[in-house]
Specification:
Length: about 260
């Protein structure tokens, strides 16, 4: 049943990496508030279930298979969104992969490139095709998903992941500056550890889980719904005066 709060009625949201985890959580939240949804992913296997969950909320949904680090795929996902629904109001650039805890001098170049290509270049590729339809329709909201690893160094994650997530913060700030006058808001979320399939390794061992939870002063790790709630706010008209912000969703991790 659809949420009585329909901030997104008549709007369309595109969510990269939307078949599971944070992306699926965002898709379900925005659909519950009335948005038509386009989700993307590299693998079709989880998409059927994701689409079914979204459509149960009473809205329309589409899946576009592709790799955001590839220009043709990024362009096609936006084109198919426009073909299906005629507009793009909110873009959530969430697709990403995890990073190995490998010291810089031991990291393989191909692996470094693979993380940068998806986690940083993929956000840039997505933005460059999302912006034109927003310019044409007179505005929109772009929400990039970084990480607490984009706001600090240390040994929180491997060098490729940390570098990529810092880069997403930079892309967000320059994008906000370039398109503010065009009423395109560009913001960024920086989650701490969120319980998703990508983070499953962090929860497999009870002792490791306890250490991970202890790093969050609020007393727990995050859930996709925690991030989805922030996405729903930043993408809505209630956040019309907010752009260029880096919004931690971290349970106090950065304190």
């Amino acid at each position: 049943m659809r949420n009585s709060a329909t901030r997104y009625e008549g709007k369309t949201a595109l969510i990269t990496g939307g078949t599971m985890g944070i992306g699926l959580g965002a898709a379900l939240r925005l659909a519950d508030e009335g948005a038509n949804i386009v989700i993307t992913g590299r693998r079709p296997e989880p998409a059927e279930d994701a689409i079914a969950q979204i459509e149960q909320l009473g809205t329309q949904a589409r899946f576009v298979q592709g790799d955001v680090s590839k220009a043709d795929d990024a362009q096609r996902m936006v084109a198919e969104c426009l073909d299906a629904f005629g507009r793009l109001d909110v873009a959530v650039n969430n697709a990403g992969i995890t990073g190995r805890m490998t010291p810089i001098h031991k990291m393989d170049e191909d692996y470094f490139d693979s993380v940068i290509n998806v986690n940083l270049k993929g956000v840039w590729q997505s933005m460059r095709f999302e912006v034109p339809p927003m310019l044409e329709q007179g505005g929109g909201s772009i929400i990039n998903i970084s990480s607490v690893a984009g706001l600090k160094g240390g040994t929180i994650a491997g060098s490729a992941y940390v570098a990529a997530k810092h880069g997403v913060v930079g892309l967000t700030r320059i994008g906000a500056a370039e398109y503010a006058a065009d009423q395109i808001r560009v913001n960024c979320l920086a989650p701490a550890v969120i319980e998703t399939p990508l983070a499953a390794e962090s929860f497999a061992d009870p002792e490791l889980r306890a250490r991970v939870e202890a790093a969050h002063p609020i007393g727990r790790t995050g859930q996709p719904d925690d991030v989805a709630a922030a996405i729903a706010y930043l993408g809505s008209d209630e956040a019309a005066f907010i752009t260029g912000t880096i919004f931690p969703v971290d349970g106090g991790f950065l304190l």
